Amino acid sequence: MKRCLVGLIFLAVFLPAYVMALEIKEPVHKMDELVVTSTNKINAINTPASLSIITGTELEEMGAKNVIEALGKIPGVVDSSAKRGTVVIRGNKSAMAGGPVILIDGIPQKIGDSRYSEFDFIPVAQIERIEVLRSAGIAYGPGAARGVINIITKKAKQEGIHGDVSASYGSWDTHDETASLHGRQNQYDYMLNIGNHHTDGYEQEEENRLSVLARLGYNLSDQTRIGIWVNHMDYDIDTAYGFLKYQWQLENYRRDIHFPKSETDSDLIWHTEKEQQNSIIALELSHKDEKKFIDSTLSWTGYDEIDKSLAYLFDKPSSVYHNDSEQDTYTVSISGGYHFKFGAISYTPSIGLNYESIDNDVSRIYPFDPGKNTDAYNFDLQEKTYGIFWDNDFLFQEKWGFKTGGRLDRTEVKLQDKVPNIADEDRTMFSYFIAPSYRFTDKANLYVSAGRNYWFPTPRYYAWAVEDGGTFNPPENLEPEEVMTYEIGYKHMLNKAFNINATLYFSDYKDKFGSVYEGTTSRGRGNIGDAEAKGIELEADGRVCSFFGYRLAGTYQDIQWTSGTVSAKLHPSNTTDKHADIAGKQIYWVPEFSGLVGLDFFPLEGLKFSMDINYMGERYVDYLNRIKYPSKTTVDARISYAWNQWKFWVLGKNIFDEDLEYVSNTAGTLTSADGEPKNAYYVQGGAYFEAGISYSF
C-alpha cells in the first residue's frame, strides 16, 4: 500500500490541468532522419527494413542510465540480462553467447571469446541516437542474423563555440556529471565530452564509469570531411553476478550483494569484481555530393578486463580465480556509390569492403591455489573476417522502389590453449536481400522483403568443441546459424498527430545452437535444431494538440522450435532426459506479448510531463515450457522544465517498485521428485527516483 501511495502522489502532483491550445512547433520526426545502419544513407521512412531509432532526446527524457534500459522499449527487443547487459531480438538467442551485432559509429564491438554485449561501459550522455535493425540485411556481415544495434555518438553541428554541463542525483547514491564542448570554426569541427557515473546499486553493486569522447574534423569542402575520434572508458563494478539467488535467498536477501549459501550453510557468497578499459581510435573519410558518396573508416579498439570471481571466497577459496583478458581489434571499411538518373528511373549502386582482425589473449590464476593447472583457461584467440557487398537501389517515377544486394563473408577462427587444444576453422557465407516497395507519398512507404543472413558461432563454442566435443561434436561440425526472413512493412508520417511504423514478419532459423550431450557426457555447444518465428511489431506516435502527445509500441511474437533435442528434467520424477524433444516448444524467455503506452503532457511553455506504462507478458523459463515467469507491468514518470539555457527534471522509474528478475532454469529442475521448480534468480532492479539540472550555452 505504501508503494502505491508514493506512486499515486508522484503522479497527482505533476499531472497537468487542461490549458488553452498553443501553436505547436514541429520538430523533425525521427523517420525523417538519415539512417547510417545501411549500405546507402537514406531517410528512415524510405528504408525497406524493420528499423527503430532512439534519439538522444528520448534517452534523456526516459532517464536511461544504460543502453539496455532504452532498448527494452523497442518492439521485438527483450531484455535478457542476468548481470551482463544482453538483449534478444525476435527471440534469436543461444546459451552463453552474445546476441546482435553491437556497433559504435559503425565499428563492431566483439568482446572476448563469448561475445557478450558489453553495454554498461557505453555512457548514455555521449549518444546522439541508437539505430536498431531487426530485418535481414547485408551491411554488417556475420552476426547480423540476430539484429544490428548501431550506437551513434554525438557530433558538432553548430557554428561557434557551444557547450553544456549536467548533474543528477538519485536512489542508491547514484550520481552523474557530464560536460561537453563542441562547435565549428572555419573548416574545423570539434567535440569533447567527459562523463562520470557512480552508483551503489539496487543490489549493493558499486559501479563507477569515467568516459571521454573527443572528435576533430577538417572539412575540405561542404561535401568532404576527414576526421579522427577517440573514445576511452574506465568501468569498474562489484557485482553479484557469479552466483544466482534461489527462492530462500531471494526472499531474505533480495538486495544484498553478499548472502548465505543456504538456510543451513552460513558461509557467505561473495561478489565478482570487474575492471574494464575500452578504447577506440578511428580515422574517417567521407564525401557526398549530388552524384557520388564515399565512406571509409580505419579503427583500432583495445579492450582490457580483469575479472575476479570471488563467489566462494569463504566457502571454497581454492576455486577463486582471476581472469585477465587483453584484446586488440583492427577494422578497415570502405564503401561508396553513385546516383544515376535515367529519365524517370533513379539507380544507385553501392559496393563495400570490410576487414576485421581480432587478437584476444586470456590468462587465469587461482590466488589461493597457485599450483592448480590452468592450461585450458590460458588461450590465444585470433579471428579474421573478410567481407564484400554489392547493393542496388532503384526508384521508378519517384514511387516504385526496388532494393537488392548480396554479401560474401569469410571468417577464420584460430583458438589455442596451453593443453594444447587447437581449433582452426573457417567458413564462407553468402547473404542476400531483396525488397520491392511503393511510396504513396514522400511520407509513406509500403515494402515487402526477403533476405538471408547468418550468425557465426562464438570462439568459445569452438573451444568447447575441441576440448569436449570428441568425435560426437568436433569443431568442424559447427555451422553458422542461417536465418531466412520475410517481411511486410508499412511506414507513414500521416501528420503531426499520427505516425506509424508496422512490420509483419516470418523467420526460418536453421542450425540453432544449444547444449549437446552424448549419453550423459557434455559435448559442448552444437547445432541442435531448427526454429521458426512469426510476429507483428508496431510503433506509433503523435502530437494530438499543443498540450498532449503519445507514444505506442507493441509486439506479438510466436517463436518456437520445429526440431531438436536438449537435456531436460522429467516431471514429476526429476530424472534427466538427455534427448528431450523440443519440437513445437516456445523459445524460453521470449514473451508472446509486450508493449508500451507513453503519454506526454505540455501544460505550459517549457514544462513537460511524461508517463510510460511498460508491459512484458509472461514467459517460459525452461526449454519444455512447463515453468512460467509472470507478466510484469512497470510505470515510469518524468517532469522537466526548460527555461532559457537551463533545464530541470525529476523522474521515477518503476515507481510502484515491481520486483524484476531474470530466471534461470532451462532444464526445468525441481527441488526433488514431486517438488517445486528450483528456479535461480538474478535480481534486476526496483523503484528509482532522480533529480537533475543542466545548462547549455
TrEMBL record:
GO terms for biological process: siderophore transmembrane transport. It is a multi-pass membrane protein. SUPFAM superfamilies: Porins. Residues 219-649 form the TonB-dependent receptor-like beta-barrel domain. Keywords: Cell outer membrane, Membrane, Receptor, Signal, TonB box, Transmembrane, Transmembrane beta strand, Transport. GO terms for molecular function: siderophore uptake transmembrane transporter activity. The keyword Repressor does not apply. It is found in: Cell outer membrane. CDD domains: ligand_gated_channel (cd01347). This is Predicted TonB-dependent receptor. It comes from Desulfobacula toluolica (strain DSM 7467 / Tol2).
